[in-house]
Specification:
Layout: E1 7-12, H1 16-26, E2 33-37, E3 51-57, H2 59-72, E4 76-85, E5 96-98, H3 103-121, H4 131-141, H5 146-153, H6 157-171, H7 176-185, H8 196-199
Parallel strand pairs: 1-2, 1-3, 3-4, 4-5
Helix pairs in contact: 3-7, 4-6, 4-7, 5-6
Length: 200
């Protein structure tokens, strides 16, 4: 099963620098396609786009073009908007991308929305981490290797690898740094629990 199927991202910004930067960052997301536009009305060239679509645009662009974008994308199964803030003093939210967000945080926020498309569709799918997966995740965030985790939990390395694979499938995140961001945002760990000396 292709988990990326029919999940597209449309990024709208007048800045080529913002578009190029977000395109590079969003390569690490779960999207099957990333479309870059300067204005919302340029979606007219993508009328056939269907499936689940996440549109990332400034609040001004959304206010100006959201009704038109919805009319153009009539084939879309679901459309959701995410606000792009280009000011340094933006308020943090899972529904916004701020200019100074780290690439892993941007991918996490985007993947949360992309995963919500699928979870809305498949309410029976269990994406909650098990107690053991949470224990493994906590140890991953503290910089432990698979072997160290296996020794601490009295299981085989293969079992730890299986847990990590399940964690990645459920969260849509593969990297240790991305999983750390996930654990902090989901309050699985406290940022103060992370010893930066262990990570270097």
């Amino acid at each position: 099963m292709n988990s990326n199927q029919n999940r597209s991202i449309v990024v709208i910004s007048q800045s080529d620098l913002v578009l190029t930067g977000l395109f590079e960052v969003l390569k690490g997301s779960l999207a099957s396609e990333v479309v870059l536009l300067h204005r919302g009305d340029e979606l007219i060239d993508f009328q056939a786009m269907n499936g689940h679509i996440l549109i990332i645009a400034t609040l001004e662009e959304q206010e100006k073009s959201s009704a038109l974008m919805r009319k153009i994308l009539v084939s879309a199964q679901q459309i959701q908007f995410m606000t792009l803030h280009l000011e340094a003093d933006s308020v943090y939210s899972n529904q916004t991308i701020n200019l100074f967000d780290a690439p892993t945080l941007i991918c996490y926020k985007v993947n949360e929305i992309l995963n919500s498309f699928i979870s809305d569709q498949n309410k029976d799918t269990d994406t909650e981490l098990t107690k053991r997966e949470i224990e493994v995740l906590q140890m991953v965030t503290k910089g432990h290797s698979n072997k160290e985790i296996a020794d601490l939990l009295f299981v085989s390395t293969h079992t730890v690898i299986s847990h990590r694979k399940n964690i990645s499938e459920k969260t849509g995140i593969k990297s240790a740094s991305g999983l750390t961001m996930y654990a902090i945002l989901k309050k699985i760990i406290d940022v103060n629990e992370i010893d930066t000396a262990d990570l270097i």
